[in-house]
Write a structure and sequence with these properties.
The protein is α/β, with parallel strands linked by helices and about 575 residues long. The chain is about 55% helix and about 10% strand.
C-alpha cells in the first residue's frame, strides 16, 4: 500500500474518531461553545490556507465572507422560513460570488493594493450590516436561528460541524497535489515562470480567492446555526485580522496548521482568564505569546514541527521509459518566424524592426553584446512583453497578441537568464508543471502518464535519481538542468534557452553541449541565447546577431562569426 493511501486511511480513521467524540461526549455549554467556535472558524481559516498559503495572495476580508454565510442562514431561516440547508448553500454561493467579483476587479493589482481593497470591502460590509436595519436587523442582530432537522441539539450539531471540518480540511489538503494546486503554488513561487509554463495567472488567483470566500461562507453559515444568534460586531475588520493571525500562527501552508492556529488563538484567551483581573496584563501576555511564536516559528507551529518528522525523500523508482520529443509540424517551413518586431520602452528602442527565421530542427543562436536586445526579444516572443510592432508566428500560427500562457499551447517553451524554478516544490513537481501544459499530446494517458513523462524528462538531463528533492538542495548548474527538463516535458515545438551556460563550469558546459545535441537529434527546434562562443559554434548551425536592438548579421554560424562587423560589435575587435 502506498504512503499516500496509508495517509488517507489514517486521516479518515482519525476524523471518524473525532467526529464520534464530538457527537457523543457530553460537555457543558461553555466548552461546547468554545469547540463550536473553533470548528467554524477553522473552516474559514482553511480558505486562507488556499488563497494565502497556496497562492500567495493577501485576503483581509475573510470575516466579510464569513458574515455573508452567517447572515444568509440567519435571515433565510428566521425571516423567510427557508430550510437551513438551502440557506447554507445560498450563503456559500453568495460568498463565492462576492469573492469572485472582488477578485475580478482587484487581483490584477496585487500586493498592498489588494490588501487595501479587501480591507475596504470588509469595512463597507460592516457598515451595511449595521445600518440596513430593515433587512439585517442592524446592531441588534438576528436571534433564534434554527438548526436543521436531526441536528437540533448542540451535541449533534457540533458533531455535524466537526464532520464538515474534517471533510473540508481533507479537500484543502489534497488540493495542493492537484493540477490546480500546483498552479497555485507555482503562482506563489514565481509568477513569470508560471505564466511561461502555461498557467493562467489571473484565473488561478481568481479561483483561489473564490474558494477562500466559499469556505468563509460555509464556516459562517455553520457558525450562525451553532450559536443561534449573530450580530455585526462579530464580523468586523478585527475578526479578519484574527482569522489571518490564526492561519499564520499555525502555518498557513497547511490545513493542519490552520486548525492548530485556530485552536490556539481561541484557547489562549481562556488559559489567560486568570489575568483579566489586572487591567492590560491579559492583552500584553496574549500579544507577547503570539509575537514570540511568529518570530521564532516563521512557518507557523505546524511548519516548525513538521520539519522534525520530514524524513529523507523517498527513493526514486527505477528509470522508466525514455523521453520522447514529438514537436508538432504544420508543414510551415519555419518553426518560429518574427517579422519587423519592435519593442520600445518610451524613447528606448530595445528591439527595432528585427526579422528572424528559425528553421525547423536543429539549433539557432541569437547573439550580441550586453544590451543588444536579445532577452527582450525572447520576452516579446514568449509574451512576457507586448510587442510595439511586428508579427510573431509559431509553426505557422500567429501569436503576436496571444497571452503568454496560451503561447505554450502554440508550442513555445523557455528557460530564463535568471533561473526561475518553483523553490518550494521538488524537482519532479517542477517538471510536472511543465508537462501539464494544455495541448501536450504525450500526457493524455492521465495522472500516471503525466508523472512518467516528468520523470523521463529528469532522467534525460541526468537528475532522475534526485526527483524528490526540493529545489534549494540543488547546485546552480543542476537547477539549470531542471529548468530545461521542465521545458522539455511540455513537448514544445520551439525551445528557447536564455543564457543556459551562464554560471556553469567547464564540465557543466560540456554536459550542456552534449544535452543540446541529444535534444536536436530528436528533431526539436532550439533557439539559444548565450555569450559562450565555443558553445554557440559547437551547438548552433545558424546564427542571428543583434546590436543596439537591430539585426546586423544572419547566416551559417562559421560564416557569420568571421564577419568584421560582428567581431567589432560582439567581440570588441576593431574593423
Amino acid at each position: 500500500m502506498s504512503r499516500s493511501v496509508t495517509g488517507q486511511l489514517l486521516y479518515a480513521l482519525a476524523a471518524a474518531v473525532v467526529v464520534a467524540l464530538a457527537a457523543t461526549v457530553k460537555t457543558d455549554g461553555y466548552v461546547a461553545n468554545i469547540l463550536m467556535q473553533a470548528a467554524t472558524y477553522a473552516i474559514a481559516v482553511f480558505g486562507l490556507s488556499i488563497v494565502l498559503g497556496l497562492c500567495g495572495q493577501i485576503n483581509l476580508a475573510q470575516a466579510a465572507f464569513f458574515a455573508l454565510g452567517a447572515y444568509s442562514v440567519a435571515l433565510g431561516t428566521v425571516d423567510y422560513h427557508v430550510p437551513f440547508w438551502l440557506c447554507l448553500v445560498a450563503g456559500m454561493a453568495i460568498a463565492l460570488a462576492a469573492g469572485a467579483g472582488l477578485g475580478l476587479t482587484t487581483l490584477r493589482l496585487g500586493g498592498h493594493y489588494l490588501a487595501m481593497v479587501t480591507i475596504s470591502f470588509q469595512q463597507i460590509l460592516t457598515v451595511v450590516l449595521i445600518n440596513a436595519i430593515r433587512f439585517t436587523h442592524g446592531p441588534d442582530g438576528v436571534s433564534s436561528i434554527p438548526r436543521p432537522a436531526g441536528f437540533t441539539s448542540g451535541q449533534a450539531f457540533l458533531g455535524l460541524v466537526v464532520a464538515i471540518l474534517a471533510a473540508s480540511g481533507y479537500l484543502v489538503w489534497r488540493l495542493a497535489d492537484t493540477r490546480l494546486g500546483r498552479a497555485m503554488r507555482a503562482v506563489r513561487d514565481n509568477e513569470l515562470a508560471a505564466s511561461a509554463n502555461g498557467i493562467d495567472i489571473f484565473r488561478t488567483k481568481l479561483i483561489a480567492f473564490a474558494l477562500a470566500a466559499l469556505l468563509g461562507g460555509l464556516g459562517g453559515g455553520l457558525f450562525a446555526g451553532g450559536f443561534s444568534y449573530i450580530s455585526p460586531d462579530q464580523f468586523a475588520f478585527a475578526d479578519s485580522i484574527v482569522l489571518l493571525t490564526m492561519a499564520l500562527l499555525g502555518g498557513v501552508a497547511s490545513p493542519v496548521g490552520a486548525a492548530i492556529g485556530t485552536g490556539l488563538l481561541i484557547l489562549i484567551p481562556e488559559w489567560l482568564r486568570f489575568l483579566k483581573s489586572v487591567p492590560g496584563l491579559y492583552l500584553a501576555v496574549y500579544g507577547v505569546a503570539v509575537i514570540l511564536i511568529v518570530l521564532f516559528m516563521p512557518d507557523g507551529i505546524w511548519g516548525y514541527v513538521s520539519k522534525f518528522f520530514r524524513g529523507r525523500a523517498p527513493a526514486p523508482s527505477k528509470a522508466g521509459e525514455p523521453l520522447v520529443l514529438k514537436p508538432s509540424n504544420s508543414g510551415a517551413p519555419m518553426a518560429l518566424e518574427v517579422k519587423g518586431l519592435c519593442k520600445h520602452f518610451g524613447g528606448l528602442k530595445a528591439v527595432d524592426g528585427v526579422d528572424l527565421q528559425v528553421r525547423r530542427g536543429g539549433a539557432h543562436a541569437l547573439i550580441g553584446p550586453n544590451g543588444s536586445g536579445k532577452t527582450t526579444m525572447v520576452n516579446v516572443v514568449t509574451g512576457l512583453y507586448r510587442a510595439t510592432a511586428g508579427e510573431i508566428f509559431v509553426d505557422g500560427v500567429e501569436v503576436t497578441t496571444v497571452p503568454p500562457h496560451k503561447r505554450t499551447v502554440a508550442g513555445l517553451a523557455r528557460t530564463f537568464q535568471n533561473i526561475r524554478l518553483f523553490r518550494t516544490m521538488t524537482a519532479l513537481e517542477n517538471v510536472v508543471v511543465g508537462a501539464e501544459r494544455d495541448g501536450n499530446m504525450l500526457v493524455e494517458g492521465g495522472h500516471d502518464a503525466l508523472w512518467r513523462r516528468a520523470r523521463a524528462a529528469l532522467e534525460f538531463v541526468g537528475l532522475g535519481h534526485r526527483a524528490n528533492e526540493l529545489i534549494p538542495s540543488f547546485s546552480y548548474g543542476h537547477q539549470r538542468l531542471i529548468e530545461i527538463a521542465r521545458a522539455l516535458a511540455a513537448n514544445p515545438t520551439v525551445l528557447l534557452l536564455d543564457e543556459p551556460a551562464a554560471g556553469l563550469n567547464l564540465t557543466e558546459k560540456k554536459a550542456l553541449h552534449d544535452l543540446l545535441g541529444r535534444i536536436a537529434a530528436q528533431g526539436l527546434t532550439i533557439l539559444i541565447i548565450d555569450h559562450d562562443m565555443t558553445l554557440i559554434a559547437g551547438a548552433a548551425r545558424h546564427v542571428t546577431v543583434l546590436n543596439f536592438g537591430r539585426r546586423i548579421a544572419d547566416g551559417e554560424t562559421a560564416e557569420v562569426l568571421r564577419q568584421p562587423d560582428v567581431a567589432a560589435a560582439y567581440l570588441g575587435v576593431a574593423e
